[in-house]
Write a structure and sequence with these properties.
Strand order of the largest sheet: 1-4-5-8
Shape: globular
CATH superfamily of the largest domain: Butyryl-CoA Dehydrogenase, subunit A, domain 3
Number of domains: 3
Strand content: 5-15%
Number of helices: 12
CATH class of the largest domain: Mainly Alpha
Mean pLDDT: 95
CATH topology of the largest domain: Butyryl-CoA Dehydrogenase, subunit A, domain 3
Radius of gyration: 21 Å
Length: about 400
């Protein structure tokens, strides 16, 4: 359970500025010491996630008729950006937002009424998005996990990797093949999406944690004869790749917001430290060699935020192309990593000390250069699908 059941938070006409202020106030109760303890102990930040759930923020994309806030991706961006700018780590719970894209845009009315109110209230947790596999990597069309139709159910066998927060989830969105790849006209065909009720899976779903450089709850998932009701298939059989793209495009935009928040965290900390720290009788921020890199990184973050804002507006307006979301993720992750290095240089040796928080956020910021999609694949997407050049693979 993500938290106790609650009445939906009455936040429907809130401005983005008001929303940012409210999220900032919530995050103030979870400062550096809280996140440092969780990082060192490799524990899941249940208290923080419960607070977000109780405030209604994790249900911001769920329509009001199902108990959510009924807000858009633009508002969700504000929430995640503010969490990371405060020094927190929204990766502990962000999937509950972007998995909504698949369910909200392509789920049946019966599925929405069955699951969304419980997700909005905190009675159900949907944090797991099971797509990636060890051998397929970023080539989603090559996944081997197979769901065989047997009457009114599917029997699933296979393996997933880097599936985060599955141990904290009641529900998981799963992508599996329902038609072998050599039997489809297009390699994106023959894939289907399912809602898996994790708590009822028993031994048919095994989870093995993966130790990583950050506290991210990444796991391997083994599916051995897992039975999923046909009623839990999202949309038509064989069209799952198209359906999950709704979630993936939202994911790109939302994670870009986390990178922008990370970048501003580094800029805030670096500029404050440089303005106060004295060496050789003068504040180090008076030195162009210190202040110019900070200003340069800040402008990159602002530019990435502009692309993110455009992508969010288009997504909320029904745009389904991946151009904007992918570019936002690419630019924001690079800007955040640039700011991370600037902050580390500004703090010098103290940047390596855990008490300042820079080294933890430094490690966390590096993730989005390679996940949920490697930046080189974004370059390939833009080159091929935007600029019309030949495929490079």
């Amino acid at each position: 359970m993500a938290g106790a059941a609650r009445e939906p938070a009455p936040v429907t006409n809130v401005s983005r500025e008001q929303l940012a202020t409210a999220v900032r106030a919530l995050c103030a109760d979870f400062g550096h010491d809280y996140w440092q303890r969780a990082d060192e102990a490799r524990t899941y930040p249940h208290e923080f996630v419960d607070a977000l759930t109780d405030a209604g923020y994790l249900a911001c994309l769920i329509p009001e008729e199902y108990g959510g806030m009924g807000l858009g991706v633009r508002e969700a961006c504000v929430i995640l950006e503010e969490i990371n700018r405060s020094g927190g780590n929204a990766a502990a719970c962000h999937a509950q937002m972007y998995t909504m894209g698949t369910l909200l845009r392509h789920g049946s009315e019966e599925q929405k009424r069955r699951y969304l109110p419980g997700i909005a209230s905190g009675e159900l947790c949907l944090q797991a998005f099971a797509v990636t596999e060890p051998d397929a990597g970023s080539d989603t069309t090559r996944i081997r996990t197979f769901a065989e139709r047997r009457g009114d159910r599917y029997v699933v066998n296979g393996q997933k990797v880097f599936i985060s927060r599955v141990r904290q989830s009641d529900l998981m969105i799963l992508l599996a093949r329902t038609t072998p790849i050599d039997e489809v006209e297009k390699r994106t065909g023959g894939l289907s999406a399912f809602i898996v009720e994790v708590r009822d899976a028993g031994d048919a779903l095994r989870v093995s944690p993966i130790d990583t450089m950050i506290n991210h709850e990444s796991c391997e998932v083994f599916l051995d004869g897992l039975e999923v009701p046909a009623a839990n298939r999202i949309g038509e059989e064989g069209r799952g790749f198209r359906y999950i793209m709704a979630g993936m495009n939202a994911e790109r935009i939302l994670l870009a917001s986390e990178s922008i928040g990370d970048g501003m965290y580094f800029i805030d900390r670096a500029s404050d430290y440089a303005s106060a720290r004295k060496v050789f009788g003068r504040r180090i921020g008076a030195n162009q060699g210190v202040q110019f890199p900070i200003a340069d990184a800040y402008m990159d973050i602002r530019a990435a935020a502009a692309v993110r804002d455009e992508a969010a507006r288009e997504y909320d307006g029904g745009e389904t192309r991946g151009e904007g979301p992918n570019m936002a993720k690419y630019l924001a992750s690079r800007a955040a990593w640039k700011a991370a290095n600037v902050a580390m240089d500004t703090f010098g040796g103290w940047g390596m000390a855990t008490e300042y928080g820079i080294e933890r956020k430094f490690r966390e910021a590096r993730l989005y250069m390679v996940a949920p999609v490697a930046n080189n694949l974004v370059l390939s997407h833009v080159a091929t699908h935007v600029l019309g050049m030949p495929r490079s693979f």
